[in-house]
Structure formats: structure tokens, C-alpha cells
Amino acid sequence: MAVTLKNIAQRADVSVSTVSKALNDSPKINDQTKKRIENIAEKLDYVPHGPAQALKSGQTKLISMIVDRIDNLYYSELTHLIKREIKKYGYNLVLCSTMGDKEEEKEYITSMIQSHNVDGAIFAFSRNEQLIDKLFQNGIPLIYVSRPRGGNCSIPTVNYDLESSIYDLLEYLIERQGHQNIGYAGLTSSSILYDHDQRYTIYRKVLDEYGLPAEEKYIFTEYNDYEGGIEVGRQIINNQDRPSALVCFNDELALGVIQTLSLQGIDIPGDIAVTGIDNITMSASTNPPLTTINLPKKKLSFCAGKMLVDLLQGKEIPHKESTKTFPTELVIRGSA
Amino acid sequence: MAVTLKNIAQRADVSVSTVSKALNDSPKINDQTKKRIENIAEKLDYVPHGPAQALKSGQTKLISMIVDRIDNLYYSELTHLIKREIKKYGYNLVLCSTMGDKEEEKEYITSMIQSHNVDGAIFAFSRNEQLIDKLFQNGIPLIYVSRPRGGNCSIPTVNYDLESSIYDLLEYLIERQGHQNIGYAGLTSSSILYDHDQRYTIYRKVLDEYGLPAEEKYIFTEYNDYEGGIEVGRQIINNQDRPSALVCFNDELALGVIQTLSLQGIDIPGDIAVTGIDNITMSASTNPPLTTINLPKKKLSFCAGKMLVDLLQGKEIPHKESTKTFPTELVIRGSA
DNA sequence: GTGAAAGCGCTAACAT
DNA sequence: ATGTTAGCGCTTTCAC
Fold this sequence. Notes:
2 copies of one chain form a homodimer. By secondary structure, chain A is α/β, with parallel strands linked by helices. Chain A has 3 domains: about 5-50, Orthogonal Bundle (434 Repressor (Amino-terminal Domain)); about 60-160 and about 295-330, Response regulator (Rossmann fold), CATH 3.40.50.2300; about 165-295, Response regulator (Rossmann fold, 3-Layer(aba) Sandwich). The first copy, chain A, contains 12 helices and 12 strands. In chain A, the strands form 3 sheets. Chain A has a 6-stranded parallel beta sheet with strand order 2-1-3-4-5-11, with helices on both faces. A 4-stranded parallel beta sheet of chain A has the order 7-6-8-9, with helices on both faces. Chain A is elongated, with a radius of gyration of 25 Å. Chain A starts with a helix and ends in a 5-residue tail after the last strand. In chain A, about 45% of the residues are buried. Chains A and B meet through helix 4, helix 5, strand 2, helix 6 and helix 10 of A and helix 4, helix 5, strand 2, helix 6 and helix 10 of B. The first copy, chain A, binds a DNA duplex through helix 2 and helix 4.
């Protein structure tokens, strides 16, 4: 059985409340008794019962981070940074990976957040925006990180400005490199995900502005990971008609595409230029190194940590400060 | 404020315990009252208070998984599979990533396990073996997964037999391919980690048996990730004298090495053969595809999930069944 | 400086 | 079939 305050109280021949005060270093307890109690606690390996403390205090000092896939390197890097950040404020992070499944996410929301097993949550991904919005209205500390704030969402959001970088990227491909047939691989508006939709939307918009067609045959949807990239690569190989450049939804997808094409002797970027988004660590040193858009993970994490902790401490976040946006940056390397 | 049984009881004009029984579908409650109560609960969006339930029942239905780095693809794939597995038994998984830091892991052990915030834990990595052993003696359900059971450790362990596969791998490199200078990159015995040490130890042992030297200059220690591989690659390039084959601690390290060498025009496997261990998804489709050792992740996860749940249900695991070992398998692809 | 008592939200044994 | 009561482990008044 686990050691409780009661056990310690018996051995020390004092009351439970005295033990509680002693271990919480209350000034009203005699230094000698305090020492005595501390020694006994130490000897018995006492650790406070989390659920009991949580029930009493109303807080668990736990924050959950909700991501799509734990095996996406962007998410795992971001998670690590955020964890570091909130630890400074005395919070621990528990990771919930939904694998993009709406029901699974909902279960996590219920069993972790609504049930008060954690004090708050950071969503790096979501398919339950309405539910989340409702929870936030009910006063549960929540924020979005790296996800554009759409519609009537009132939840504090830490975000990056992808638009100008995608603009820079396409400008680079079109004006500097003379590409005319620029394809896209990733999730499109068929997806529920606002963020994913956004990348595609910007791509379409910029092509429009340049008067270039976004041809059906150069657009590969429903893919967002390395394996998806492999598949896109296969399709490109099988098609007669290929784009001269391919803008990918994220780095992992891009690396999958490059892999497949390279194996078939297609030269990157000679035959097809390929770009990513995220700038995961690996992409600096792939073959060829990936031209991509850097997302400011450190700034995002720093800001997200602070914002959530503010919320947890009951600070009202003024509406106009509830969205922070950091610039992204085009990183030109060898793949385009 | 959150909705409690009390709130529901007031609206339904019944006692708290009636509400509790109704929502727990007790047969003693009138069907009509039950319906009425359920409706109110639904309308108010009632979710049971986790800490209160945990305090009462002594269980949280949460399991924590402790890994080294969340951004290691082997760990994240394994974590995902285990999560799936334990969900079948009604448990949720919370991921704790220690980044290999002993103190950080200790904090997690205290704040999650000893404090009863989770019912049990799966360690895919640890630097606090002694503490963990003590906890297990005290009856906390714990298991190791993919970590050799060393010394006097009595904790149930699900493991793979790497020895025969490393043997197969070296046999293949030496007898089939005629390699004489086989290097090693990864962590060595300088590390505290039993598992890491083991890989190196087996490598040494097999070379010994073949009467081949394990030359200092071909051994690169203190690396275990992609960036480490990049660094090893640099060192190999700078050295006059190169091994003809390099056995890497894991796939990510191997991919880092291959990347750096390829960029310098060194042919893999022509100039240097490179092998990994893990068989992460990506390695089937890298360039060249990686020769590696497959670890039976599905079997490990399945077995680990079952073992921990048995423990959680109070089943004694007979000593001789407390270690399960699954075979691994040499996967020959293009990099060696 | 220390102890007694109440209560956080929930469940279950025991009335009625 | 429903209500009363006690208690899980802890903290926090309020007495003494």
C-alpha cells in the first residue's frame, strides 16, 4: 500500500493536519517537529497522492498536448520545445496523439480535459473545433498552436504567417526559376482541417495571381506523410505529363516524393523541383537538401507556453492579443 | 464551474447517490428516473471528475509510456502500437519523453507514477533502473519493453533477441561480402544504457569470433540519432582510413551517415556498406534502401499491452514467464 | 504550535 | 427504488 499522511502522522504521533503543514513547510510548525516529520516522510518514501491533491486544489499541474501523429517530426520537435517551456512554470506535459482520428481525439478531450485530469491543453491539431470552442467558453484553458484561427473561433492562437512565405516560394519558383507547371501534393479542401486547407488555398491564390493554371493532373490530394510522398512519387512516374515543380504540404511528404523519384533516375531539381514546408531537422541534410519554409518552432513554443500559463493563472487575454503570428522564412537549398 | 453529480441531483430532485447509480446503470434504479437523470446529465454536459473517481477507486485508467526521445521514429511507431493495444482494455496512454535525461525521468516517475496519476507504466527506456525496481517491489505495475533484462532486475520484460540477427548481419557482411574492416557507430559501454551497451557488445563478440579486429579508428561512439549520423559521416570523410562497412546503432543514425557520405560522392554500398537496426518505416525507401534488422514492433506491443494489463488486474506473472523474447530478422536491402 | 473538523466529487454499504 | 452516511487523501479554516 501507498504511504499516506495518516501513516506518517501515526509514526510521528501527531495529527494529519500537522503533517500536511510540516511537509508544506508552513511557518506555524515547530522546527523540530518539522524535521522529525520530514525524516519519517523521507524514510517511508512518501509521495503525495496526485488525485487527492487534485480533488482538493482543483488542479493537476498537468497540461496535455494534442497532436495529429507523434511520428511526424514537426510535431515531435514542437512538442519537445513546448514541454521544456511549460516545465519552467511547474507544469508537466502529457502527449496525446490522435492519429488524425476525430473520435479518438474526442475521447482524449473527454477523458483528459473535461474530466479534469489535466488543467489545460495545447492543440497543435484538431478535428473537434466546435467542442473545443465550447470548452473554452466554459472557462477551460486552451490554446491552439500553429493552426490558423478561422471563422468565429475565439481561442487564443499562436501561429505563423505562412502566406507570405508561400508567396515567396512561388515567386522564387516562377520568376527566378521560370517554372510554369507547378503542382501541389498534400491535403486539400476536402479535408476538414483548416490549416491544411489553408496551404492549398494560398497555393491556388498565388498561382491565380500569376495567371498560371493549377492543373488537376498536377495536384495530388489526401497525402500528408512520408508514405504518402512515396505514393505521390509513384503517380508522378506513371503519368506522362509531369509538373516541373511540386510544392509539398510538408517536409516528410516532400522527402517521400524525392525518394521515389530519385530511385527512378529522375533528377531533383533538374527534372522536377520539389519543396516542403516545416524545415524539420533532417531536411537540411537530405539528398538533395530540401528547399522548404522554416516555421519558427522556438518562438511558437515559447509564446504558446506563456499564453497557456497566463490562462491557467486566470489572466484574461485581451481579445486583440489572443492571436500571435510569427513570420516564416523561405529556406532555399538544393531541391528547387 | 464544472458540472457535478450534486448539480444533477438538484435538478432531478433526487439524491447524489441516486444520480451516481443511475449514471453507472445500476439495476436498482427505476427506468424512468434513470432516463430523466441521463437526460439532465446529457443536457448539462456532465463528465465525471477524474481525480475524484481516481481517489475513490484507486485507479486512473491511465498508463504512461516512458521513452527516450519522442522524435525517434522507432519509439514513436512503438508508442502508437502500444497505445492501440491498451485502448482495447480501456486504458489511455500518456507519453512521457525524457530526452535521455535521468533527472527528468525521475521527475516523471515521481509526478506521474509514484503520485498515482497513472495506474502503471511501460518503460521503453530508463536511466533509473534501481528506483524502478523498488517501485515494482512495492507493487506498482511496471514493465520494460524492448530492453534486455540485465542483472537482478525482476521486472517483466518484453524484448527482442538482437544477438542472432547481429550475428546474421555480420556473417553476411563478412562471409558473403568479404568485408574485413567493419566499423561501428553508436553508443558504447561508456553509456549507462544496458541496451545500447548490448548492441556494441555483440558486435565486438562476433568480430572476435571471426578473428577480425575491432579497430578504434573505425568505432564512433556517443551518437544515436540522425544528427549524430551526420557527424559520424563527417568524421569518416576526414579520416584517411575508412572502414569498408559500418554497422550503425539504429536506422536514423545510419541514414545520417549515408546522407553525409552520399553528398561527398562516396558510394553506398560500393565504397562503404552501411547498416542500421530498427527497420523504421522510412528506411525501406531511402536511397539506397537500408539494410537493417527488423524489430518485431507489433509483437512487442501486443505482448507488452497484455502483460501490463495482467499486472494491473493483479495477476501474478510467474517468474519464468516474466520475460518474453521475440526473434528479430535481418532485412537485406541496398545499403550493404 | 498543534489538533479537530469540514469538504473537494465520487461510490458503495447500509438503511428505509 | 431511493436516501443516508461514510470515506478515499489531502488542505484549510478555526479552535485551543
